[in-house]
Amino acid sequence: MKRITKMTVSAMLIGALLAGLVFAQGGVATSPLPQTTTATTTSTQTVAPEVKEALTGPEGEYAAYAMYTAVIDTYGDVEPYVTIREAEARHIAALERQLDKYGIEYPSENPYLGTVEAPASLQEGAIAWEEGEMANVGLYDRLIEAISASSYLDIVCVLNNLRSASLDAHLPAFQTAADNGGTLTADQMQSLKLGHGGNAVSNGGPADIA
User: CB–CB of 116/110 below 8 Å?
Assistant: First the structure.
């Protein structure tokens, strides 16, 4: 499939997956999050609440986890979705720790779960999430730039780790899957150095590349 075709199909599929979830307001994407939120304030410092977008935004970790769940529910335990969803769960935990630390409220439950439909085929899904991971990298680039001049080096470190996971592990996985019918074999997963039980992203810890 030519590259322009991949990008066209990808754009259409991502738009369909997010339809009804996101409303544009003044050029800024917002998601239909529930009013009930939870967080524990452990610091008197404040940090820009936009950092929450990494968790709750339409290109963030909650949305990605829900979309990979929809694929697994529809097509079974297919790779790279199973392994990458496990990584997303660790990414969510890492972001929640940072938001708790700085007293930033966020939904106690993933608001995207059960609201997203799986793509029509695994091939289409792989093409879409090749583009989706690129969008995720762009999200982290924007957030890191926005707070890099501040004193929140712990948050910047976590965001950099998550960006690296998307760019260096998840993106190549979906690129390879898109070229191989939509899924990856165990040997392909091994060649990409993807597998269960990778390093978890912690506060300033190493990037999860699983």
Answer: no
What is the rounded distance in angstroms from the CA atom of residue 132 to the CA atom of residue 128?
6
Crossing angle for the helix pair 61-75 and 81-101, nearest 10 degrees? 150
10 Å Cβ neighbour count for 133?
23
Distances (CA, A) of 122 to 56, 160, 202: 25, 29, 31
Q: Which CATH superfamily is domain 3-26+57-191 in?
A: Ferritin, core subunit, four-helix bundle (1.20.1260.10)
Which is nearest to 99 in space by CA: 38, 142, 151?
A: 38
85 with 101: CB under 8 angstroms? no
Q: Is 30 exposed, middle or buried (0-12, 13-18, 19+ CB in 10 A)?
A: middle
All structural domains of the chain with their residue ranges = 3-26+57-191
pLDDT digits (tens, 9 = 90+) for 129-185: 999 999 999 999 999 988 876 678 899 999 999 999 999 999 999 999 999 999 999
- pLDDT digits over 59-105, tens only? 899 999 999 999 999 999 999 999 999 999 999 999 999 999 988 99
In angstroms, rounded to a whole number, what is the distance separating the alpha carbons of residues 111 and 99? 17
Q: How many residues does the structure list for the chain?
A: 210
Kindly report the pTM of this predicted structure. 0.74
Half-sphere exposure at residue 46, Cβ-oriented, CA atoms within 13 angstroms: 3
Residue in this structure with the two tokens 């439909």, named with its chain if needed: 117
